[in-house]
Amino acid sequence: MDDLVIRNARVVDGTGAPPYPADVAVTAGRITAVGRGAGAARRTVDADGALLTPGFVDIHTHYDGQATWDPILAPSSWHGVTTAVMGNCGVGFAPARPDRHAWLIGLMEGVEDIPGSALAEGITWEWESFPQFLDALDRTPRTMDLGTQVPHGAVRAYVMGERGARNEPATAGDIAAMKAIVKEGVAAGALGFSTSRTLAHRAIDGEPVPGTFAAEEELFGIGEALRELGTGVYEIAPAGAAGEDVNAPPDEVRWMRRLSEAIGRPVSFALLQVDAAPDLWRELMELSAGTDAQLHPQVAGRPFGMLIGLETLHAFGDHPTYVAELALLPLPERVARMRDPDVRARILAERPPEEDLLAATVRGCLDRLFPLDDDRPDYEPAPDDSVAARAAATGRDPLELLYDLLLEDDGRNLLLLPLLNYSERNLDPVREMLTHPRAVLGLGDGGAHCGFICDASLPTTMLSHWARDRRRGETLPLEHVVRLMTRDTARLYGLGDRGVIAPGMKADLNLIDFERVANRRPEVLYDLPAGGRRLVQRADGYLATFVSGTQVFANGEHTGELPGRLVRGARA
Asked: Using CA atoms, how far apart are residues 54 and 14, in angstroms rounded to an integer?
């Protein structure tokens, strides 16, 4: 008798094969049979034709702090993710000398917009070395499995102190010491090593992430640890990734090819479309292909941008009246004051004496600022839906319209400002990226960018938008979408025991009402330690999520079960 049988499912097994009807049996956390007519079980679930997919494997998250205090790991767990990989972009919390805790928090706060006060209150610092960090993670049950990578920033600061933090060149002795720490961490179970070279990544004090300007001797020397162990992924946020230097990325890809060939390991790097060179991504894709190097561009399934609102950031945040009279008021009081005709007139008539960069960015992008004004947010809005276009169509001033939009839903309304992956005001380039044979799906950033981004809902966008709802271009086959989020991401990180529904595989599963699966509108919560703010996004249509055969979510609600464990190293 099996522990669990899911009957009458429409199986999308993660291999890229078309959906097929089947029963799936599970015992001791593993799939024992896939087919029709499964036998008796201690528990039977009638899928009634609903989709059954492998659990989603999200390879780009930043739960490095949250994982030490939060067993749920939302919002990723609300979107069918059953395995997450953190420690990306060269930032993390181990190794950590006792006198470097505050500095590491400032590094993460600056790069990934996670409130420093929440990290300071939530992290208990039960470790110094990376293996000790893994042991601390191992002691915490959670809803999903969790793997991590060794971050360059923490390693550099641990070995080099202030010299490392200030991006001074590493000596041969420094490189040897860093390699030893990375090798120790990967041998203890880390899934790889990560670094950042983009100038967009800066600590809270404005300093670039340690390793941003590292010489090839340092980057290749650390990579030797992966070559010697024969395991691990080398993950990179490359120079120019955010469009700060469009001449840098081709050279970055060329040295990454040499790196992968030298160490014999996969190298994955962030790839997004930038307005300054909207076709550059195609060149980088081609440079990634046609070589013996294992180079994998990591792409996103929707625009990368900011969510604009009174609880995040907006165009009036640097206006004198707002700063002096409104900024610190609780939201209900702020909304009431902003609705006062006199206050409204004063704010709209003002121009800030010193512009805030983010507020100025919003004011300068009204032609690409789109309301998310319903419960099914559209991540491929048409140009006619922008604030500027709506204002022109009604003869209104666009800033005046934006002011009124911000006050909708009692000030909780949000607008989408796509900054990357939307140069052509459609997602045709993104579709091309998602079908490239070397590309892997990532960049959801679960746990990060708490104040103005919420892309951890990407798996639900992949199912609802790309496999079902897209109207402004071609969709993608459901089986392709599922494979991108399961087998492909699992295989990149050597997690060969998951990502496919087949006998012997780990029983991480999602039962989904495909006609109903959809993202809800993002919302702001203040539930991090110390009352820290974060954007979250729930979803509809997830009937059940199982981790190792144990149901962790039912209709989007946590069941109370915590079967998730730390993933230590690659497995067959």
From this structure: 6
